[in-house]
Amino acid sequence: MLCLTTCIMEDQEMQLKVRRVSDKFTESMYVLANEPSVALYRLQEHVRRSLPELVQHKTDMQSWEEQSQGAIYSVEYACSAVKSMTNSSLYFKNIDGLLRQAINMKEQISNSQGRR
């Protein structure tokens, strides 16, 4: 019976020692896994994986910006052309009057030549 009690006590002591070693090992692994250099490594890996996609998005956005700038310039140019056309209505009225005068003069010349 003494041997059985001793074996049980030794077994409990062994379990306690194993649990302590296991807990210390777990704590050490946790500290190592969360060490700043490991965090920096993980950050570097994340940047390395996501950077090409970000660069592609940036080049796409720059291309779209260039295309948008070209379209904006075209629209602004068209708007200024329309504004200048509305401002030139006075000139078109003058041209219309001059053409009417020219037509009347042509008719007068034709009539006077027809009489001769």
TrEMBL record:
It comes from the Eukaryota. The keyword ATP-binding does not apply. Keywords: Lysosome, Membrane. GO terms for cellular component: BORC complex; lysosomal membrane. Pfam families: BORCS8 (PF10167). It is found in: Lysosome membrane. InterPro entries: BORCS8. The keyword Membrane applies. Belongs to the BORCS8 family. This is BLOC-1-related complex subunit 8.
